[in-house]
Amino acid sequence: xxxxTARILCAMLVLFGAxxxxxxxxxFKKAESTYKMFCAHCHGPKMxxxxxxxxxxxxxxxxNKEGFxxxxxxxxxxxxAWGDILLPEELDxxxxxxxxxxxxxxxxxxxxQAVPPPQxxxxxxxxxxxxKTPGTLTACLAKNGGVMSSRRATGGAGMDYEVAAALAAExxxxxxxxxxxxxQEEESTPIREIYALLAYEVCDIVPGFALYETSLSAFYQTRxxxxxxxxxxxxxxxxxxxxxxxxxxxxxxxxxxxGVVYRTADLDRSIEKIADMEGLKIxxxxxxxxxxxxxxxxxxxxxxDAVTLNPGPDFLWEMEQGSFDAALVTxxxxxxxxxxxxxxxxxxxxxxxxxxxxxxxxxxxxxxxxRDVFDPxxxxxxxxxxxxxxxxxxxYTYAKPRQPWVQAHLTMQxxxxxx
Amino acid sequence: xxxxxAWGAFxxxxxxxxxxxxxxxxxxxxxxxxxxxDPTSILTYGMGxxxxxxxxxxxxxxxxxxxxxxxxxxSLADSRGQETFPMIHDGKMYVTTHAATMALDLATxxxxxxxxxxxxxxxxxxxxxxxxxxGVALYEGKVFRTTLDAHVVALDAAxxxxxxxxxxxxxxxxxxxxVAPLIADGVLITGISGGEYxxxxxxxxxxxxxxxRLWRTYTIPAPGEPGSETWKDxxxxxxxxxxxxxxxxxxxxxxxTVYWGTGNxxxxxxxxxxxxxxxxxxxxxxxxxxxAMKWHYQTTPNDPFDYDTTNELVHAEIDGRKVIxxxxxxxFFYILDRETxxxxxxPKFIDKVNWADSIDLTTGRPVETEVATKARAxxxxxxxxSALGGKNWSPMAYNPxxxxxxxxxxxxxxxxxxxEPQYRPGVFYFGAEFxxxxxxxxxxxxxxxxxxxxxxxxxxxxxxxxxxxVLSTDGGLVFTGNMTGDFEAFNAETGEKVWSYNTGSGxxxxxxxxxxxxxxxxxxxxxxxxxxxxxxxxxxxxxxPTGGNIWTFSVVE
Lengths: 419, 557
Known about the structure:
Structural class of chain A: alpha+beta
CATH architecture of chain B: 8 Propeller
Number of strands of chain B: 38
Helix content of chain B: under 10%
Helix content of chain A: 25-40%
Oligomer: heterodimer
Largest sheet of chain A: 5 strands, mixed
CATH topology of the largest domain in chain A: D-Maltodextrin-Binding Protein, domain 2
Shape of chain B: globular
Strand order of the largest sheet of chain B: 1-32-33-34-35
Mean pLDDT of chain A: 83
Strand order of the largest sheet of chain A: 13-12-14-11-15
Mean pLDDT of chain B: 93
Radius of gyration of chain A: 23 Å
Distance between the termini of chain B: 11 Å
CATH topology of chain B: Methanol Dehydrogenase, Chain A
Strand content of chain B: 25-35%
Number of domains of chain A: 3
CATH superfamily of the largest domain in chain A: Periplasmic binding protein-like II
Number of strands of chain A: 16
Low-confidence stretches of chain B: 1-24
Largest interface: A-B, 26 and 35 residues
Largest sheet of chain B: 5 strands, mixed
């Protein structure tokens, strides 16, 4: 299971830019047999075909992995979709085969591959050799991350903080934290900021990294601005842009979910879908995914009667004061509210919306040796309840990661249909 | 000229006989048995239950074939390979693609109705060798076909409206259907495809009126069933043992026996399934009402080479004995007694066969060479003919008057090594690494030969092998099509090409001939594609566009 999980993540990352494979000949052999198994009978031996009955893959642009993935997974024209049957690593092997033109041409240049792989023996030694400050694991954590991360006079608190500390312990090292704060600039997004923090080597890892398709492909926007962090040098102004690098991620350690919060007096029913809230006065957090889902998947009557408010900590406080009776919110937001308002009358129903994001630890693609230490550690901590304990300590309602590890790009179709 | 009028009178008489006792669109069991004797209709796959693909018509002949011109064409509106066998009844022609069934006006080629076949978009994954359909069966006012996602469908012959639809099995496990069904003794019989996907093959009988399945005969026995002793050392291999049945069988009404060929055992790695692996790579004689097996004959025991034995089983009488004949993928031409299954003769019908020296007529088993032994032992071998076979699916013709077989054959070998197979439902289950061994020159030959001795009468070599069916007529002609689009006629005696017409896309269809108002016509579907196009990667086909049409030809005055 662990190996499988790791493979899937490797696969996703190869697809989106990070180098994973070391041994070219072995990869090619695998790629070739995968091609033979899935593609050769239409696209020809070694990709040679007349190009009439099926597409001539030798003409596929070498820089269009994403288009390739879409065609393979979802089908295109006469080609059937393979998404439900192909393993993610197989998709990557196929891409390897196509971009090397059946092994006849070198792989297109990828700067991240020019870095020689570390020669250390054990995974721990290899991981240690990649740290920015020898002897210390440095993590970037959001200063204002609610139950996930928050700064304390000494050290910090929150689920992501605890996970970072546990991973440092795996390396037998102290944890150093760079507390950062989003700049909320127009052109900046939290994901690009994380890429920038990693590329500038402000830290070795960023926990709390949500796995969705776009978060893994942000690399393609090649430059990004840095957010503020506690020890940021003055000379790095707002206009300073960092050249981004491919990132790598660990297996997910938790899942961010959405649930229904209600006032303890008001829930007279069991909830299995959003529309089941009909008849209750509904609060809608404007501009958030939870808000959109409430409006799209609720009934028309619900939407007409709903109270729409700005997102933020005040939202649940409004509910506490009786502005509305129930709302779909991220479970973490509810946890944070409870933590700050321990006499709260709000409760969280057992229902969880099927749409959620798995949370993992991000690092630079070329520092992925750390993953070989962290992945088994995460699997073990899920298994033995350590993560549940850390969550309890953080007052965070823990949810284990769920397949698929990486949430596909959200379309309006998904938002309407995934209920 | 006189002959032509004679045919016309005969046709008129037959036409009247249809009108009186039955509805206009009915065709009875007796009509099917008589098919081939009435040139105005084609009611059975292969032009007669014996699938000889030989017509007594001679209005188109060596003297006038040079004046053969298109009479009408009809677009199939489809870019896949077109293998449909056109059926004709009551002024209409019935043709199929993987995506639709169509009835055409025989006089003009205009569409009378078209019924779309819906199947899930993932289905083509389980079609190893082409998204094709080989045609319909006709019976008592209904048109029957199979679908790529393994359903059997009945349509109203007059309107195309669906009468019933029965799911045979879940395609996601690697099963599909491309076969033209067979009506025998009032039962609709079909066979399953999927020999490269780890299926367990079968042949089925359905009630043509209701779609109810009457029987299913597995071609791979379960433990304890007859034949299971030939799998006993293979563990669970039988569960994914292959033995598909993807080409239409023949039928002897007198013996009330259906003859159906089965495909390769799977995976190809024969070392993992020690034993003969019955009833894969076999010819089965079945009772049409029950599916019970009357006899079986296996051509390639413990086959490591993908030597399907699905090819058409052509009826003949040799020295007064009723036989079936098959040009097997494995390079040998099998002649079996139709009543007993006894092997009568098995000459080679192509030049290069290296996996076996001969077939022992006493034991009925191949006298194998070390190529076969090594292949089973997991060593890399070069074997001939390749998995494409000495002859692939494209049906041959047999002229009983001259005792000559006309068949499109391959000149292709294969480099092969058995490996551990990986089973995943709906994914290739080869258990072998392989590549083609192309010859220097021609990869295909249209060969005319004596079925009993295999003696070659003539051949016509072709750079890109032909995958079209063959038609023989008493006009002294042999019709077939080539991959670059030529519909061709040959002098049946000399092999001289006497006519050809480029149809604009490669041909992998099945030529037929028929008569209307006293005039003889020849029809073929073009539309390049299917197994050779897909598997070979032959770049010489780059200038041959896809796109299927039904082409009907006649002689201009």
